[in-house]
Amino acid sequence: MTALDVDFARSQFPGLSSPWAFMDNAGGSQVLRRVADRMHEHLLNAAVQTGASYAPSQETTRRVGAAREAFARFMNCDPGEIVLGPSTTILLRFLSESMTGRLQPGDEIVLTNVDHEANIGPWLKHAARGVVIKWWRCDPETFELDLEELKRLMTHKTKLVCVTHASNILGTINPIPEIADIVHAANAELCVDAVAYAPHRAIDVKTFGADYYVFSVYKVFGPHFAVMAGSRDKLLQLDNIYHYFFDKSRVPHKLEPGNASYESAYGSIGSVDYVEELGARTGAPAGRAAIEAGFDAIATQEEALTRRLMDFLASRNSVRVIGRTSAAVEDRVSTVSFTVGRESSRRIVEAVDKAKVGIRYGDFYAKRIVEEHGLGATDGVVRVSMVHYNTTAEVDRLIAALEPNL
Predict the structure, then answer these.
(1) Measured distance CA(340)–CA(338) in Å, rounded
(2) Which of 46, 171, 307, 323 allows an S-S link to 327, with CB 3.0 to 4.6 Å?
């Protein structure tokens, strides 16, 4: 693992000059200056439609193409496999709609109760057409998903499994390559919500084996925007959800009704460039190697922050960490949730507000795991979601604010 230059990282985010310590990053990270500069430049100097013959239009077309190329590098896939959209929630709804023609009565979809509702709700609508919904539920004590249970759920009728790469409450990293092997052995497909994973670790869709892999750029230092990588052969089979004159071969455009936000696409390149620069500063060569090195440095920093917080929480008898208590990079991302006996999580968070430390309480739209495990009685969980630009001093500030309230 490589050390991160935290001072350099923080200098790239104007919002970090605030007196607040931002530890609600799973809700949305701070935005890079380079992202905002790109969006500003595009909106004021290149705000024309794509696809025309005149030069400014050709430049906008090039910029959107450059965004696909950047995210293909970021996710290790082909630019033609990148679908752009406004949010993960919307892209998953688009994906669900585009699978309508392939899902028949009697077919099965497996969902988990640890996912954000974005990767649950869109699939439930198919039940009205006779598609069978099966639930892969976590252990009520450990909150772990059991791979053997998934194997028992799979049948020859299973067409799709939907799961999160990292829970936005638990922080747990799920073993996507092993899940993909189980799913593909049954000739089914895998849809992964990576929103809570993408800011923390390098993405390699070829290694992961997911057929559809989605995340939101506004959790990865950019604008309110999202990206989905899909295997090209799978994308070609999906229904066209754009205008009637788009045929099924028009990938990825048939899955981008209304077109993507050009300024957001162009601005988002800054997020990829930033992670690549973090890696280049460690000596890694440009391109994919630098992206991986950048995330290695990010993971090292975040593990130290998580361990510091976990050590404190472990010292308090009143605290129950929801999910794994390990801080190891292979086990979790730096999103930590907990409850304090029967205390209201809202009261604890509002007490921390006074120290100008931004954390959060609630269910974070992963409402099913909260409701099914009795966590609603405490106003949900207290969630601390850190990223690499947070510092040990900020964690200590959080701990000092939490201590009298636990």
Answers:
(1) 7
(2) 307
Positive or negative torsion for Cα 214, 264, 383, 303: positive
What CA–CA distance (Å, rounded) separates 191 from 230? Answer: 9
Name the strand (E) or helix (H) holding 216: strand 212-216
CA dist 257 and 90 (Å) reads 11
- Token digits for 151? 């194997």
6-32+288-405, CATH topology level: Aspartate Aminotransferase, domain 1 (3.90.1150)
Q: What are the residues whose beta carbons fall under 8 Å from the beta carbon of 251, sequence distance 6 or more?
A: 80, 81, 232, 235, 236
Q: What is the pLDDT of residues 146-175, one digit of tens each?
A: 999 999 999 999 999 999 999 999 999 999
Domain 35-272 has CATH 3.40.640.10: yes
The CA–CA distances, whole Å, from 88 to 28, 70, 326 equal 13, 18, 28
**What confidence tens digit (pLDDT) does each residue in 130-142 have?**
999 999 999 999 9
pTM of the full predicted structure?
0.97
Structure tokens at 381: 């969980």
Question: In angstroms, rounded to a whole number, what is the distance separating the alpha carbons of residues 132 and 104?
Answer: 10
Dist CA 339 CA 32 (whole Å)? 32
* Omega before residue 79 within 30° of 0, cis: no
